[in-house]
Amino acid sequence: MNNYDVVVIGAGPGGYISAIRCAQLGFSTACVDNGMGVDNKPALGGTCLNTGCIPSKALLDSSHHYAFISKQAADHGINVSGVKLDIHKMINRKNRIVQKLTRGIAGLFKKNKVDWLQGQGTLLGNDKVKVTPAGEEAGEEYTVSARHIIIATGSIPARFSFAAVDQNRIVDSTGALVFKEVPKRLGVIGAGVIGLELGSVWSRMGSKVTILEALDDFLAPVDRQIAAASEKLLARQGLDIRLGARVTGTGVNSREVGVSFEQGGSKQQLNFDKLIVAVGRSPNIAGLGAEEAGLELNENGSIKVDEYCATNLPNVHAIGDVVRGPMLAHKAAEEGVMVAERLAGQKSEINLDLVPWVIYTWPEIAWVGKTEAELEEAGVSFRAGVFPFAASGRALAAGDSDGMVKILSDADTDQVLGVHVLGPNASELVAEAVLAMEFDGTSEDIARTIHAHPTLAEAMHEAALANDGRALHI
Ligand code: FAD
Ligand code: AMP
Which helix (H) or strand (E) is 128 found in, with range? Predict the structure, then answer.
């Protein structure tokens, strides 16, 4: 039996980052993973690299270029004719990017001397892991021992009893990344982060997309002003978003999929060529042997941990999507680094209140900290500064001037409490806000910081000025 200082179970962004950091800190480290790549062979990287963040962004970017060429290029004085989609090539490009990155992690494991143990990891108490190899060349199962175990088994698409995923007519997010042709009529259940991203991809490529969302509010966790503006822009792009529409059943035949839903007290039905089920994700503890090992779980099936990701079992930590908190790759990765460093005796911590969120629609939505509604509910008095991209020279030059930056700060101390961006490259712009908030910065700090001209980031500067009623360009 091999003995390791640390055995990590799961090689998504939580697990692989944690394993590399453990190895950097001098621990002998192994990472057990049962993930399969786009070629159906073992691949590192988890959901994020294989079926999540990266492939979805590759298709978002490809579809964005197509939409630009088809709809906006003429505005720039560029007339293009004979534009044709080659879905096969687009999907292959996405697969190549995924493989380059997943193989890159294998290279990083080699460089850092992390042992990649292919197969399913099952806890045997708090100091042993059984590895059951999978795939074509699967060998015998074996056991490794560990002074510390880090569980990073991630999450899987939430299942919905009325819409059985067959990855043909009814698909989950994984199936929606490999369509062989553009569906003419595409239904999406759930107007959350994943439903909106994948709905946008296929809408830009020509699908007539209808999104059915049970809640009455569009993007309930998002700042109301930003959500309302985004809803209008997405409707303008042709997304048919039906709020208060609770799906109750589906029926598949050889030609289409029928979806029954209730809206405003009436029962309705729509037919689609494909249906994406995007109703959230569930923590993944399948095959982990969590209960047998005595691991305490939360009501939703996630592993119970404290602020430092320690479980109830001594020497066992859990990180990423399989524990509480936002199911985001960067949150998983930072938890992985924190646990590794604490095992090495460092005092690392992370602030879950300052995890940035991004929704990759176009314009993108990104935010950090509190919304206006949350501050009102908490009885905090605050000031808001809003600057529209319509007044940004750089945004106008790019032909991308929808949206705004909004900075909320404490009315007494001016400390930044929340920053909300709807606009081009919002995912990049929000980083400045996260940094300002990490340093307990004020909106005055952002207002006094010199921003290059002409840039989209100037909108952040102007929103900070607007927070004090002294914006210069509105
Ligand atoms: P995962 O990435 O899920 O990895 C877990 C790994 O553990 C997998 O390889 C799994 O096979 C393996 N495993 C599970 N059980 C066992 C076991 N018993 N033994 C061995 N191995 C096991 N997040 C963002 O931050 N930005 C985005 O843009 C973004 N886009 C997304 C788009 C889509 C379509 C989807 C589905 C998700 C997206 N996410 C995004 C979410 C992101 O993918 C997850 O938050 C992230 O992957 C979680 O990382 P993790 O390490 O916790 O788990
Ligand atoms: P997210 O958790 O961000 O992936 O979003 C999932 C979305 O699916 C949420 O907004 C839910 O309200 C929505 N949802 C869940 N069940 C249903 C249903 N039966 N019909 C329509 N929408 C649903």
Answer: strand 128-132
Please list every protein residue whose CB sits less than 6 Å from any atom of ligand 2.
189-194, 212-215, 246-247, 278-280
Q: Whose CA is nearest to atom 45 of ligand 1?
A: 328
Which residues are known catalytic residues? 453
Per-residue pLDDT of the chain (474 residues; tens, 9 = 90+): 799 999 999 999 999 999 999 999 999 999 999 999 999 999 999 999 999 999 999 999 999 999 999 999 999 999 999 999 999 999 999 999 999 999 999 999 999 999 999 999 999 999 999 999 986 667 899 999 999 999 999 999 998 899 999 999 999 999 999 999 999 999 999 999 999 999 999 999 999 999 999 999 999 999 999 999 999 999 999 999 999 999 999 999 999 999 999 999 999 999 999 999 999 999 999 999 999 999 999 999 999 999 999 999 999 999 999 999 999 999 999 999 999 999 999 999 999 999 999 999 999 999 999 999 999 999 999 999 999 999 999 999 999 999 999 999 999 999 999 999 999 999 999 999 999 999 999 999 999 999 999 999 999 999 999 999 999 999
Question: How far apart are alpha carbons 319 and 341 in whole angstroms?
Answer: 13
Residue with tokens 């609770």: 246
List ligand 1's pocket residues with C-beta within 6 A: 9-15, 32-35, 46-48, 51-53, 56, 120-121, 152-155, 173, 194, 284, 287-288, 320-321, 327-330, 332
Residue 33 CA, ligand 1 centroid: distance in Å: 12
Q: How far apart are CA 243 and CA 238, in angstroms?
A: 15
Among all bound ligands, the one having the nearest atom to the CA of 31 is 1
DSSP-derived pairing of the beta strands 170-171 and 274-277: parallel
Q: Which DSSP helix (H) or strand (E) runs through 357? A: strand 357-359
Residue nearest to ligand 1 atom 23, measured at CA: 328
Q: What angle do CA 419, 339, 293 make, to 5 degrees?
A: 120
